[in-house]
Amino acid sequence: MMSNANELAIRGGEPAVKPYPTGRFHFGVEEKAAVDALFDEAIGTGNAIGYNGPQETEFCKEFAEYIGAGYADGVNSGTTAVFVALKALDLPPFSEVVVGCVTDCGGVMPIVMNNCIPIMADTAPDSFAPGPEQIEARITERTSAIVVAHVSGYPADIEGIMAVAKKHGIPVVEDCAQALGARIHGKHVGTFGTIGAFSLMFGKHICTGGQGGAVVCNSQELYWKVRRAADRGKPFGLDGVDTNVLTTLNFNMDEFHAAIGRVQLKKLSAIVAERQQSMAYLATEIFPKLKCVRYVAEKNMPAGSEASFWKAQILFNPEAVTCSRKEYCEALTAEGVPMAEHYLFAFMPKHRWYLERSNAFPWNSPQYLGDRFAEYPCPNAQKMMDECMFLLIQEHTSEETLRQFGEAFLKVDKALAK
Ligand SMILES: Cc1ncc(COP(=O)(O)O)c(C=O)c1O
Inter-axis angle of helices 29-45 and 255-281, to 10 degrees? Predict the structure, then answer.
């Protein structure tokens, strides 16, 4: 029988990628042992398993050390990490916070929940992150802060953004939810800005369980503000104060999550390195041979960047292809390559909660002095939303599977190029 290896799998051919384990194998016996130990102690002593305990103290020390930050606080999600970071900055109500328009809503809604107005900045060309120019274009006399996400593990031009922020005297929250382990000239993202926020939910590089997060900063004063913002305004770091001092909620991490997080932190460097090695192979051996896609990793990041590749951005080149991005992606998926056609739900200007803002608080408050009907065009971001697809790269991808991913790209590209 003739082999149909050259026929696309989507047309009945043999898939280029042989079945492989698709699970991320997040947890091992070490995480289980860490949790078991907490239970054993609780059962043996009759004491509770709580929060703000020794596991979290150690987790925060170890997390700060890994990142190279002075201080860290564990919280219960990436969304609450961004909320707590903003709350700790004590922003004036109804002030404006400039934020990149492509991100998770968990990186934007906390601005609104702090009674501030999110102002959408466009992204830099060929990037999901705003650059200094796009941020500066949105700064007004009402701007109180900037939130920048390092989207999909690709460092934004945070040094350029910090220069703009410094010029205007505005603090910066680095939203590193997708970028744990990413660095610029060896320095971790999250340590360039005034304060850094991380997500530690199960889909990210490492997790503390199903959910989790962390906030980092270098100033001790800010650290105490973070602690207060994360725990109902308890007077952490304030001598002689015996009541709560701030209206906020309880965003604490607990001892279970901290114990899991401590084990996961030990795995983080290998997870990031494996993702980087896989992408380095594809970037040198495969992507330059493709006609239908552009791989922009090096070009759309600042010099000295080491992406941590939460997802790999691959730009579709509509002029070079005989089909749509959707069909190209479906062809790759049929070959066995883990692909996402686009960054679903990430374009904030299209979200209903944002589109309906003019009738919602805080936009509709008479205390907001800006134009609540203002439009903030984001053409670069729209182009990225239309043209970028993602390779869902994971750690633990074997060399053989990676080689097969490469073959699948070459096969699909050859069949679908003009
Ligand atoms: C950029 C960004 N910010 C914030 C969040 C919110 O994190 P979490 O899901 O842990 O609340 C996410 C989640 O994906 C994110 O990608």
Answer: 180
